[in-house]
User: Which sequence fits this backbone?
């Protein structure tokens, strides 16, 4: 009996390993093909003078960009390294714009007040990918007439930067929200194998957050008036301010209550600034 159990365990481990390797190979193949496709589309866009033809090329570019994210999601689930390392830091607004470019219904995304900060180059691709997953999820589960808002603000007290993706859709029950937050915080293989396929996006988000390291967190909260809000918190070590922060120790992991208070305060501040801009 013991020999049979060990043999079965070895078979299961081999099956999991083969599944992971197959995902990685498929993701790399698709990624290489999409990279070549995007390069070709870019060349055609530079040569095209007809506005109508150029608009169609832009749509092709958008489709290929979404395909690239799907390929990279396979690599994330397979535990591969960041697929698009970037050397130079990027502005927070540029990161949000890159994320919006990777979702289907990008015209419904409202980029609200995004306070300026620089995201370190090695984290840019993962942050953009993570935001794209959250934005896509908000678009899918909210009415087609409702926008999905993106806010961003810096908290000097905690030395953190927060992105909030706010939808006004169907929301979640407390039990479903608790399970979703558990998936977002579990990057292990068992969670991947046990999760229904419709929740793979949550696991992609969780693994990307885990890859960003200590202090990077994602939590789901209820949106005031209905819907769901996703909060991504980046620790100060992932930010690149003007001065060199290399001597600053990583911030402690904030409690969920602190994140919720920061989320509410940040959104309120962003909305107040937007109102002031309209009145002026």
Assistant:
């Amino acid at each position: 009996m013991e020999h049979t159990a060990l043999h079965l365990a070895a078979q299961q481990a081999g099956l999991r390993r083969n599944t992971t390797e197959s995902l990685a190979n498929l993701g790399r193949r698709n990624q290489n093909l999409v990279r070549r496709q995007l390069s070709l589309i870019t060349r055609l866009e530079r040569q095209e003078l007809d506005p109508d033809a150029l608009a169609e090329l832009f749509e092709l570019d958008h489709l290929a960009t979404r395909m690239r994210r799907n390929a990279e999601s396979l690599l994330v689930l397979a535990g591969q390294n960041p697929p698009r390392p970037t050397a130079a830091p990027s502005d927070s607004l540029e990161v949000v714009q890159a994320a919006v470019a990777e979702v289907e219904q990008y015209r419904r995304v409202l980029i609200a007040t995004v306070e300026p900060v620089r995201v370190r180059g090695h984290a840019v691709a993962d942050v953009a990918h993570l935001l794209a997953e959250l934005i896509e999820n908000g678009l899918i589960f909210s009415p087609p007439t409702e926008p999905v808002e993106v806010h961003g603000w810096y908290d000097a007290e905690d030395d953190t930067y927060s992105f909030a993706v706010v939808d006004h859709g169907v929301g979640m029950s407390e039990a479903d929200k608790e399970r979703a937050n558990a998936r977002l915080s579990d990057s292990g293989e068992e969670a991947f194998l046990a999760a229904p396929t419709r929740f793979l996006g949550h696991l992609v988000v969780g693994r990307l957050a885990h890859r960003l390291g200590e202090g990077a967190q994602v939590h789901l909260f209820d949106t005031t008036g209905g819907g769901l809000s996703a909060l991504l918190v980046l620790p100060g070590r992932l930010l690149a301010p003007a001065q060199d922060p290399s001597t600053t120790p990583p911030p402690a992991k904030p409690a969920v209550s602190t994140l919720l208070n920061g989320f509410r305060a940040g959104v309120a501040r962003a909305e107040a600034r937007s109102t002031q801009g309209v009145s002026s």
Observations:
- The radius of gyration is 20 Å.
- Residues 2-77 form one domain.
- Helices lie at 2-47, 51-77, 92-100, 121-140, 174-185, 189-194, 200-212, 256-279.
- Confidence is low (pLDDT under 50) at residues 242-259.
